[in-house]
Design goal:
The chain is mostly helical. The chain has one domain. Helix content is about 65%, strand content about 5%. The protein has a two-stranded antiparallel ribbon. A hairpin with a 7-residue loop joins strand 1 and strand 2.
């Protein structure tokens, strides 16, 4: 049986939006930042403010998304931020090519004398990169918590996707919570049999061996669940003809407003970058002055 995230009806502006509107608006912001390659903080900041406002309008309780935010902050700071700070990769070549004062050096394999310079340009790029990713992330986080899971497939179908793609996306949104449920059930069952999670000691290989009472049942249960879904789809002759969807979706005036705003954001980003040359990476004077004086 497939389960879903902690969805609850909240009667908020975000939940009253058509699911298609939410997906299309999110894609508009993501494409607006990535297709024209926007790196100018003067454009990123307003988009971040819009995304943050929509996130707050969703009124999701902190306890529901606490673990998600912990993972995102770790991912942003350790993987994206640290990589951008050390290497300056993942962005325009001007990050490492423009003259910039060196803040300090990080010894990498100091035995060979390798010292990585941390410049002001890299530091500003790391902040910009994390802000860009956060702008996109906070639009996606509320979706599994505020969107009725029964309309995932319908939303993609009404956006022009095929039945196979729509049903695949529906199952994909349900896979992680189903996997988490199976893992929790397995942990509780093993603890009832005297298995202690806290007793995992030793090296990496030894810990992996001791995790087998958890990994094997979860993998087997996921396989069985997948086979049950396949059998259910075969019994309903899925894929033999065009399908009908019981849910119906209709746009309201608020949806047209958000769709127009999303289109405006994407078009504006493209015009600023390709029409006026605004949006390239640069280090503002106030940031340099803050360190150099």
């Amino acid at each position: 049986m497939l389960v879903t995230w902690k969805y609850r009806p909240r009667n908020t502006f975000i939940q009253r939006l058509d699911p298609r509107t939410r997906f299309l608006f999110m894609f508009s912001v993501i494409f607006g930042l990535t297709i024209p390659e926007i790196w100018d903080f003067r454009i990123i900041l307003p988009l971040f403010a819009i995304s943050l406002t929509l996130y707050l309008l969703a009124r999701i309780e902190w306890k529901d998304v606490r673990r998600v935010w912990i993972f995102i902050f770790i991912f942003l700071s350790l993987i994206i931020g640290l990589n951008a700070l050390l290497s300056g990769r993942g962005g325009p070549s001007s990050v490492t090519s423009i003259p910039s004062p060196v803040l300090f050096y990080v010894p990498i394999l100091d035995l060979f004398g390798w010292m990585v310079p941390i410049t002001i340009s890299k530091a500003w790029f790391a902040l910009n990169q994390m802000l860009r990713m956060l702008t996109m992330a906070i639009l996606a986080i509320p979706i599994p918590y505020t969107m009725d899971p029964n309309v995932y497939g319908t939303a993609f179908k009404r956006m022009g996707a095929s039945d196979n793609v729509s049903f695949t996306m529906d199952l994909a949104f349900r896979f992680l919570p189903t996997f988490a449920r199976d893992f929790t059930i397995t942990v509780d069952a093993q603890r009832a049999r005297g298995y202690e999670m806290e007793a995992l000691k030793g090296g990496l290989v030894e810990r992996i061996k001791r995790l087998s009472p958890l990994i094997i049942p979860v993998v087997m249960q996921s396989t069985v669940t997948g086979e049950e879904v396949i059998d259910a789809m075969d019994l309903r002759a899925f894929g033999t003809s065009k399908r009908t969807w019981i849910k119906t979706l209709t746009y309201a005036p608020r949806d047209y407003f958000m769709l127009g705003l999303g289109a405006l954001i994407f078009i504006t980003c493209c015009v600023l970058k390709w029409g006026f040359g605004i949006g390239d990476y640069f280090v503002p004077d106030f940031f340099t002055a803050f360190f150099v004086g």
